[in-house]
Amino acid sequence: MTMNLADSAPSMNNLLGSEADSQRTLYPYVTGTSVVGIKYKDGILLAAEMGGSYGSTLRYKTVERLKTVGKHSIIGASGEISDFQEIMRYLDELILYDNMWDDGNSFGPKEVHNYLTRVMYNRRNKFNPLWNSLVLGGVKNGQKYLGTVSMIGVHYEDKHVATGFGNHLARPILRDEWHENLTFEEGVKLLEKCMRVLLYRDRSAVNKLQIAKITEEGVTISPPYALKTFWDFSAFKNPTVGAEGSW
Amino acid sequence: MRKIAESMPPKGGFSFDLCKRNEMLVQKGLKQPSFLKTGTTIVGLVFQDGVILGADTRATEGPIVADKNCEKIHYMAPNIYCCGAGTAADTEAVTDMVSSQLKLHRYHTGRESRVVTALTLLKSHLFSYQGYVSAALVLGGVDVTGPHLHTIYPHGSTDTLPFATMGSGSLAAMAVFESKYHEGLTRDEGVKLVAEAICSGIFNDLGSGSNVDICVITKGKHEYLRNYMLPNPRTYVSEKGYSFAKKTEVLLTKITPLRELVEVIEGGDAMEE
């Protein structure tokens, strides 16, 4: 997703010239791939695997892309990892200031989502985006909330969301098989189904994922684990049946 | 020693002169139109008795739906069918051409065509055109050596797979296959899974839509189920009906038979040897 600046008039070139380029994000370097999130009976479930790719190298294999925000929300991020770390600094500061008010209120997922939207959109307007697609989920006072914000500030909330490749591979499955009142086991099974397809078909996926659960009681982020995969199709084992020497 | 003529007449075949021009233009800054994965979802899978192919029926011209109910599953041989994605003209032309070649080959050898024959003919044609013939195909059939399913890409590479999807809706369809496919499917399970994959493409991809076509090929038999499923019916029909405005007067209704201009000569000297 590169920005096409070749169309700017010559007079604008100084503003967007090569010197100024060192001050703003042009392309991502260390990236995380999709995050998938669903609402279920008791709250929200997010899944993300732990890979951090450096271009086409799978450089980092234990990157935690799911984090807690305050008491009521969890955030999952795909895209540039350093920008995600920056966003976590902003969010930690936001929650800290909220706590310092000590007024009995605490920011819920809606508030955090709105804050993130404003941050992302304003950075985009300055042509210096935080190169992330975020998923924000939480439960406050019994109300479940699941939303997403992209690097240009596009935001919406829905019953199931995904970023990156998850939009193409996981959303079709979720649209078909998600229903109200999934139990925790059913929700995890559904997420694992989506993550398995992503593992097969997304080149930047690694087989090490975490699932985060948030309910009224609190947040649990599972320890990393791997999915079972199946490679024993006879056409994989013997693709040239009937035509020896071909491929 | 004979002097070789400087400008030789073209010997036929593809002339790559314009490709050089295109490269020169790109170097000068022209933005080349990118490879269009034109709107389609096509799938194939191998089940216990043969192969099942599926396709949607929407043909697009940019943002417009040009044909709401086109046929994307092409006949190659009585036991081999081919789904095509990409430029419609290219898929039609290349499958027709190879279909004729297969028929001639059947006359020559006196045997049923094999899927690998169609595969080799298609891939060598596509490779020689270096990807300019924009046809991405899912080829499936059953021959003496068993059921086979292959994908063929516009540049000429091929894969042999237990299940395959191509086109802009391929990711949506592949998500269904990757989560639900297993070996040893029965015919009904296979048809249901193919229909589900195509529907996933139809409803989740903007380039695919309308109806589901299915073709089931087994040993000695093929069933072409045109419009197997119609999940996008036209539900609203105006109750008022359609009528002319009151001011329109019908003056005269008359049917005039067209005059026959050509006289048919019975057994005449039409074509003498």
Structure description:
The complex is a heterodimer of chains A (247) and B (273). With 247 residues, chain A is an alpha+beta fold. Chain A has one domain: Glutamine Phosphoribosylpyrophosphate, subunit 1, domain 1 (4-Layer Sandwich), CATH 3.60.20. Chain A contains six helices and 13 strands. In chain A, the strands form two sheets. In chain A, strands 1, 4, 5, 6, 7, 8, 9 and 10 form an eight-stranded antiparallel β-sheet that branches. The longest helix of chain A has 21 residues. The relative contact order of chain A is 0.18. The radius of gyration of chain B is 24 Å and the shape is globular. Chains A and B meet through helix 4, helix 5 and helix 6 of A and helix 3, strand 8, strand 9, helix 4 and helix 5 of B.
Give descriptors for this structure.
heterodimer; A: 247 residues; alpha+beta; 8-stranded antiparallel β-sheet; 31% helix; B: 273 residues; Glutamine Phosphoribosylpyrophosphate, subunit 1, domain 1; 5-stranded antiparallel β-sheet; 28% helix; hydrolase (chain A); nucleus (chain A); proteasome (chain A); cytoplasm (chain A)
